[in-house]
Design a protein that fits this description.
CATH architecture of the largest domain: 3-Layer(aba) Sandwich
Distance between the termini: 41 Å
Order of helices and strands: HHEEHEHEHEHHEHEHEHHHHHHHHHHH
Oligomer: single chain
Radius of gyration: 24 Å
Low-confidence stretches: 84-112, 348-352
Number of domains: 4
CATH topology of the largest domain: Rossmann fold
Largest sheet: 5 strands, parallel
């Protein structure tokens, strides 16, 4: 079996789940694996220059994300057309390296459904798990809404999907809608621009079960909050089940309207805490089992002792060990585990926040594009977003006024100073603005 071929097929399967079949078949299905270097360089062959251009412009980030989901680390992808392709993969006794269909349970990524059976229970998540099971067993009859909160990477999304899968199994006729809050917001913006708000409302208000992930991102977005308020009321009054997930309790979501905050607390609130040692060990063993990777007990305990706050990091460490084993034949021993978690350990410490992330979060809050925030436009909403971005950038990164000005179209030192002073004055006088800024900073640092 060709290990790189397996990795590539898993990456293709990842993309296929996220694309329309016709688009996938045209741009991704025809890619061929050429080589993988230890430095993380992946070379793929494309049929022609036209396909290569489209893949580079539209689908390269998804491909990179797909490889990362399989391998647990970033790769760089190089696309080559036949005239410039290096030698193809070796021909085996069975013919050229085949791209046979891969079943999800056979993927090298160890992909598995987010079911209750696959959720690793422990003292840190037992209450949320039990609440989710109760809702799945008796939609709208147990807790409505169910509000699950906890830090990123602790299993909230897993529980939301487990509820969805269980209800769909027992009630195949139910209309179940699962949506990340950011997608909900983007759909509202699109509906308003296209004049299709009635279709948007029908989609969500006719649901038997509505599950919304990362609901904290609704904060500060007036149109989204207004629409969600009426959606919530319609569903709740019709005794339809609502499940929400957040990285913090409703009372700590700044710039969230009080009428929504109280509704989020109508039902049951359940928190998920970082897993204890025993649970971390169980998670590592389960992930290794799915990957068919034999990890010694001392290596398992080493990882569990060093990665304590995030389940995704535990799974990422196991993926790295598996990648070393598959691609280079390296057995998972303590020394290899130390190298595998080195980058992850660095990630658990404070790291510089990217400028793009700050500007993107401000843009989402103000419904303004990052390009406009950086650009010359002076509409009131864009100017307000720009001042906020400048202020947050200074608060989080401590960059010099000159460097901040360069990030915003080469604005001079005095313009940046003025923007920060205006923000400081406005924040002192406007509690809502102060809460909006606090929420942006918290989201960026999450």
């Amino acid at each position: 079996m060709d290990s790189f071929n397996d990795v590539f097929q898993a990456a293709q399967a990842y993309c296929k789940e996220r694309m329309v079949d016709a688009t996938y078949n045209l741009y991704i299905a025809g890619l061929e694996p050429i080589s993988f270097e230890g430095s993380g360089q992946v070379t793929l062959r494309v049929r022609n220059d036209f396909i290569a251009k489209i893949v580079r412009e539209r689908y390269l980030p998804m491909l990179e994300e797909a490889f990362k989901s399989v391998l647990g680390f970033d790769v760089m992808i190089d696309l080559v057309v036949p005239s410039e392709s290096p030698a193809p993969l070796p021909v085996t006794a069975d013919g050229p390296a085949a791209q046979a269909p891969v079943q999800p349970e056979e993927l090298p990524s160890g992909k598995y459904e987010f079911t209750f059976e696959n959720f690793i229970k422990g003292s840190s998540n037992q209450f949320a798990y039990a609440a989710a099971q109760a809702v799945a067993a008796n939609p709208s009859g147990a807790y409505n809404p169910l509000f699950i909160y906890g830090q990123s990477g602790l299993g909230k999304t897993h529980l939301l999907n487990a509820i969805q899968i269980e209800i769909r199994k027992n009630h195949p006729d139910f209309n179940i809608v699962y949506v990340p809050c950011e997608k909900f917001t983007n759909e509202i913006i699109t509906a308003i621009r296209a004049g299709t708000t009635e279709q948007f409302r029908y989609k969500y208000r006719e649901a038997d079960v509505l599950l919304v992930d990362d609901i904290q991102f609704i904060a500060g977005k007036e149109s989204t909050q207004e629409e969600f308020f009426h959606t919530f009321n319609t569903l709740h009054e019709a005794h339809k089940q609502i499940v929400l997930a957040s990285d913090r309790p409703a009372k700590e979501i700044k710039s969230l309207e009080e009428r929504l905050r109280t509704r989020f607390e109508w039902g049951l609130t359940a928190d998920i805490q970082p897993p204890d040692f025993e649970t971390r060990v169980a998670i590592i063993r389960r992930k290794a089992e799915l990957l068919k990777l034999d990890i010694p007990d001392d290596v398992t305990e080493f990882i569990a002792n060093h990665l304590k706050n995030n389940i995704r990091q535990l799974e990422g460490a196991v993926k790295k060990l598996n990648a070393y084993h598959m691609l280079e034949g390296i057995e998972p021993v303590i020394g290899v585990a130390q190298n595998a978690i080195k980058d992850i350990l660095n990630e658990t410490q404070p790291v510089p926040i990217t400028i793009e992330k700050i500007i993107s979060e401000v843009g989402r809050t103000y419904n303004v594009s990052p390009t406009d925030i950086r650009g010359p436009k002076r509409n009131s909403n864009i100017s307000a977003a720009r001042r906020t971005a400048i202020y947050v950038l200074r608060e989080i990164t401590g960059m010099s006024m000159e460097d901040i000005g360069k990030e915003f179209g080469g604005r001079d030192h005095s313009t940046v100073v003025y923007a920060i002073k205006v923000m400081e004055k406005d924040i002192a006088a406007d509690q809502r603005l102060r809460e909006t800024v606090e929420d942006i900073i918290k989201n960026v640092r999450a």
